[in-house]
Write a structure and sequence with these properties.
The chain is an alpha/beta fold and 384 residues long. It has two domains: 3-12 and 256-323 and 359-378, Aspartate Aminotransferase, domain 1, CATH 3.90.1150.10; 20-253, Aspartate Aminotransferase, domain 2. Helix content is 39%, strand content 12%. The chain contains 15 helices and twelve strands. Strand 6 and strand 7 form a beta hairpin. The longest helix is centred in the C-terminal third of the chain and has 26 residues, at 256-281. The radius of gyration is 21 Å and the shape is globular. 46% of the residues are buried.
């Protein structure tokens, strides 16, 4: 193994934007680092203007944005929420914390998004919301999902952790439901290390969202000079990120075009270089419908079975390349079983979880590193 080949290639490396350190310094020097300062306001304005949404509110994580969404919907004991099992646990915890119960739907085999055909049969008199996830930044079948939501008067919340700046039929993901939740974790296209945002598409939710985000107080109105003192008026918690984190995020949002251009190039190089190998080995590729514009969040492969997936991960590790699987189905987990689910209930979700692996994908992945990943992968052959 040559010195170049012996270098370890991570699955992810957080991107450091050009102005990041300067903005952190500026935030510290401003004397206001506790949140909702100049960098937070810049991020809010950028998201609102670019996505054409009613209001954006930065949060300390996507998890907290999801928790806020459940509070805004007044979810409570014994309410039911339809959602995929193939997602991160934060999607579900957000409303379980309010006493609501998950009703899991299976996913599509192509996009790995919630199977829209399963939603309507799952609706009962207890159903209060539909939470959807745009897996890998590829939009769910939103025409049908929004049709169902309007027919039954059920709000849709988009878990758009993967999908910032992705589009469905020309419209940005995160702008279809009543609310959407974004992640700015270090594994996402745009990162503040930890962080998130709640996107509001209904202006009737804005006042209460600000209150919930400010510990249940009307403090935001006080700082805008709309009231002469603030007080406790609702439930809430402390969901404001520090101004230092907002400065980091703003440095990256400033570079949106550059970041997305580079990630697109990496994704397309993987797609064109590995397509013939995947076809020969019977390995499934990501699927992006022609009416969707993805966010270029990840590149994944689906192997014939769990053993082949594990063999491949181990093979790459021996070549000093780190790859990872993804979600373990929530319905088969310890908590999922407490809600009455068992293995076999959602076959596509379970099969996908066993077969999927994500390969290195991040802004600073050099052409030489990517070519090495591609070359190593092309030498792998299915054994069974």
């Amino acid at each position: 193994m040559t010195p170049e080949e012996s270098k370890f290639i991570d699955f992810n490396r957080p991107y450091i934007a050009g102005n990041q350190l300067a903005y952190i310094h500026e935030a510290i020097q401003s004397g206001h680092i506790s949140g909702d300062g100049q960098f937070t306001k810049k991020c809010h304005a950028y998201l609102e203007r670019t996505l054409n949404i009613k209001k954006a509110l930065l949060t300390t994580s996507c998890t907290h944005a999801l928790e806020m969404s459940a509070m805004l919907l007044n979810l409570k004991n014994d309410d039911e929420v339809i959602t995929p099992s193939f997602t991160f646990v934060s999607t579900i915890n957000s409303f379980i914390l309010r006493g609501a119960k998950p009703v899991f739907a299976d996913i599509r085999k192509d996009t790995l998004n919630i199977d829209e055909k399963q939603i309507e049969p799952l609706i009962t008199e207890k159903t209060k919301a539909i939470y959807i996830v745009h897996y890998a930044g590829v939009g769910c079948e939103l025409d049908e999902i929004i049709r169902i939501s309007r027919k039954y008067k059920l709000p849709v919340v988009e878990d758009n952790a993967h999908g910032l700046f992705g589009k469905y039929k020309g419209q940005f993901l995160g702008t279809f439901g009543i609310m959407a939740c974004q992640s700015f974790h270090e594994t996402k296209n745009f990162s503040s290390g930890e962080g998130g945002a709640l996107l509001l598409n209904d202006d009737k939710l804005i006042d209460r969202a600000e209150i919930i985000r400010e510990k249940g107080t009307n403090r935001s109105k006080f700082f805008r000079g709309q009231i002469d003192k603030y007080s406790w008026v609702d439930i809430g918690s402390s969901y404001l990120p520090s101004e230092i984190l907002a400065a980091v995020l703003w440095s990256q949002l400033e570079e949106t075009e550059l970041i997305q251009k580079k990630r697109k190039e990496i994704w397309e190089r993987y797609f064109s270089s590995l397509r013939d190998w995947a076809n020969e080995e019977g390995i499934a590729f990501p699927f992006v419908p022609n009416y969707c514009e993805q966010s270029y969040h990840m590149f994944y492969l689906q192997f014939p079975n769990l053993q082949e997936r594990q063999n491949f991960i181990n093979y790459l590790r021996q070549e000093n390349i780190y790859s990872v699987f993804h979600y373990v189905p929530l319905h088969t987990s310890t908590m999922g079983r407490k809600y009455g689910y068992k293995a076999g209930d959602l076959p596509v979700t379970e099969e996908t979880s066993d077969r999927l692996v994500r390969i290195p994908f991040f802004f600073d992945l050099s052409e030489n590193e990517q070519e090495r990943v591609i070359s190593v992968i092309q030498k792998y052959h299915i054994t069974s």
